[in-house]
Amino acid sequence: MTTSAPPQSEETPSGQTEAAASEALKVGTNDVWALFTRNLRQSGIYIAFVVIVALFAILTDGLSLNPTNVTNIILQYSYVLILAIGMVIVIIAGHIDLSVGSVVALTGAVSAVLVIKEGWPWWAGILAALATGVLIGCWQGFWVAYVGIPAFIVTLAGMLLFRGLAQEVLDNISLSPFPPQYTKVATGFLNGLLGGNGYDAFTLLIGVLAVVGYAVSTFRTRMARVRYQQPVESFPLFVARIVVVAAVVMWFAWQLAHARGLPIVLIILAVLILGYSLVTNRTVFGRQVYAIGGNLAAATLSGVKVRVVNFWIFVNMGVLSAVAGIVFSARSNGAQPAAGLSFELDAIAACFIGGAAVTGGVGTVVGAVVGGLLVGVMSNGMQLMGVDQSIQAVVKGLVLLLAVAFDVYNKRRAGASR
Questions:
Q1: Which of 91, 129, 337, 350 could be joined to 372 by an S-S link, Cβ 3.0–4.6 Å?
Q2: Looking at the predicted structure, is the pLDDT value of residue 27 above 60?
Q3: For this UniProt entry, which segments traverse the membrane (predicted)?
């Protein structure tokens, strides 16, 4: 009796068996899904920002997109965005800073006393405020990095300490006004440098340069991922993302160009965003910050000087708090003992809404800034609609809770898939 040979799997045109092709398809689908979920986590804040802007544009009958109102959002929330840039680095490293609002008050108070009361030049007041921020950062960095006290406790003590010092420096009274040169830091505009018929051509040029810079940087990042055989989005989706970002940036530049031109504080913000994005993504210090927040034990064993890095993280936070203090005092044209109340909460909320992880190791400078802008657009839109302050606080709290819940959900799903 003859036995028949076992049936052979029918080959596909590519030469693979059906089983192998099925397995390859399964792996490919898993890669696409992993890429999609990762892009959703990274790009979710940008999608949410566009949705929030569109929603309030509808609810306010386009008033929120008025050129003057767009400019006012930048001016009103600039100091929170500056704080968020420093705060996201603190959070990535696994710490928190509750003192930044009090530091804003103290640095503004030092500048006001020297410039308004003592008659120092306006630029000397700015330098004194920055020096105060450096000293505060060194003080808190020493206790956190070298003594080993948790940052939560150190900065909680700092919140009380620096608030009291601000009240002492001002003698519990407000000081105003600053010289016009000082207030221009937060309220000045660059307009008419390149002319324009009813608009500021210089602002539009800056918008174009920003789009070109973003496109080049994004393309280089994509090519680097391709060289290392890492998954990337499809090319049409890649181009679509650049087009959407370019449209948003140019719309924003167009609005500014038809209002009062390019705010000086926006230039300060742009420099800080670009500079700190390079620091966190392209420098050894930035990689060490992520390593400390991601796995402290592994970072220590890898030779990272954890104490030194933590020290400079808080020095940097002190400097950026001083910059925010200068901007805030310049915008309010004076210094008040109660300045900066709850600023630390706004900065922390901006970071978490922008994608920073509660446990550290995750977050971006751009994400924190977009998170701050999202909160600013929400607050501004609700104010235009006449929503009560109590309801505004409820909405902000819910948004923050949902953002953190989304982060926790992503972590659990990633852990379950391993």
A1: 350
A2: no
A3: 45-65, 77-93, 98-116, 122-139, 146-166, 198-216, 237-254, 260-279, 311-330, 351-378
Residue 80 within a domain: yes
What torsion do the CA atoms of 321, 325, 331, 335 make, to the nearest 10 degrees? 160
Range of the domain at 236: 192-259
Does residue 19 lie within any of the structural domains?
Answer: no
Which range is least confidently modeled, 88-97, 132-141, 240-249, 295-304? 240-249
pLDDT at position 392, please? 85
Among 20-24, 136-140, 394-398, top mean pLDDT goes to 136-140
Please give the angle made by the CA atoms of 379, 88 and 136, to the nearest 5 degrees: 100
Return d(Cα 386, Cα 390) in angstroms, integer. 12
User: Is 46 found in the same domain as 158?
Assistant: yes
Q: What is the pLDDT of residues 233-249, one digit of tens each?
A: 778 888 887 888 888 88
Biggest alpha carbon–alpha carbon distance for the chain: 113
Q: Which stretch of 47-51, 128-132, 292-296 has the lowest confidence by average pLDDT?
A: 47-51
Boundary-marking domain end, from 259, 285, 300: 259
Q: Residue 131, class by beta-carbon neighbours within 10 Å (0-12 exposed, 13-18 middle, 19+ buried)?
A: middle
Is the same domain home to 120 and 167?
Answer: yes
Q: What angle do CA 318, 122, 180 make, to 5 degrees?
A: 115
Residue 27 inside a domain? The answer is no
Q: What are the two backbone dihedrals, phi and then psi, of residue 175, each rounded to the nearest 5 degrees? A: -120, 135
Domain count, the chain: 2
CA dihedral 397, 356, 279, 140 (to 10 degrees): 70
Alpha carbon of 110 to those of 25, 127, 162, 188, 336: distances in Å?
65, 10, 12, 22, 11
Picking from 203, 236, 259, the residue at the C-terminal end of a domain is: 259
What CATH number corresponds to the domain at position 147? 1.10.3470
Tokens of 353: 């809404």
Q: Rounded to whole angstroms, how far apart are CA atoms 12 and 266?
A: 59
Burial of 234 (0-12, 13-18, 19+ CB in 10 A): exposed
Confidence at residue 160, expressed as pLDDT on a 0 to 100 scale: 95
Q: Residue 284: what pLDDT?
A: 94
Structural domain contains residue 305? yes
pTM: 0.84
